[in-house]
Amino acid sequence: MYEQIQFDVSDGVATIALNRPERLNALTGQMTKEFLDALKRCTRDAGVRCVVITGRGRGFCAGQDLAEFQAVKPPFSVAEHLRRGFNRVVLGLRGLEKPVVGKINGVAAGAGLGLALACDIRLASDQARFTAAFIGIGLAPDTGVSWLLHQLVGPAKAFEILTTGVKVDANEALRLGLVNRVVPADELDAAAAQLAAQYAQAPTRGIGLTKRVLNRVAAMSLAEALEYEAQIQDIAIRTKDHREGVAAFLEKRAPRFIGE
Ligand code: T3D
Question: Which domains does the chain have, with CATH numbers?
């Protein structure tokens, strides 16, 4: 069904793998469309309780395919291209009320860095590298990289990463808070599978609502955040998984969450 991504759902875990390994999974218009379609399926399918994003081959994603970009003839609006493509991808990942695990197998550059940073949690291979790449071709950041980097590493480090084009290796990325965990390359599949399986058994609605809160509170005062948390908790407390969690605790047994 797809040509430039692989999409698979198994045991509650959907995996979207960028699949142009010979180009380090550089993003084309077609790949972006396929990615957005797969994300829609993840949203609609209640059986999907965790999404894993990764790349095939030695790269995670090298950003916009520069050959395709160069071939585009004027009149062409980059802003429109971003609005229809990468911006929807980032908003789709952040707005999806299910956990999204970034399985960062290799280099993440430019828009590919945006894709990695838009995931909720990142497991990186020790072979992964992170580079904003935009400045190397005279561009400013897009795909949410300015906002996401600023949030994760603060303004001074974000400025350095964005303006020097430095390639941050996996251990430095861990130190900076760009990734949650680094594992040897040959252990990445198992580590990501274990984390995804854990999320696929977790209270999905509670995680989705947590995401909703985190997405909103950054722009709020403490008083507004307290009020918003209270409203969201009113929703969470009515879920089946909340009732199951309390019952399991009182009955001294492991909970069986169903994602509702
Ligand atoms: O309208 C818009 O969409 C504008 C928005 C732009 C958003 C962006 O993403 S801007 C940033 C675009 N990306 C880049 O500038 C990164 C370019 N790539 C690199 O700097 C390097 O390839 C890497 C640092 C990512 C990896 O380096 P390395 O040494 O590990 O691999 P390599 O040898 O450079 O690349 C392997 C192959 O992939 C190579 O092809 P070849 O020589 O084997 O035939 C290379 O050309 C190809 N490749 C890598 N990145 C891209 C690419 N082909 C097309 N587009 C790429 N972005």
Answer: 5-200 (3.90.226.10), 204-250 (1.10.12.10)
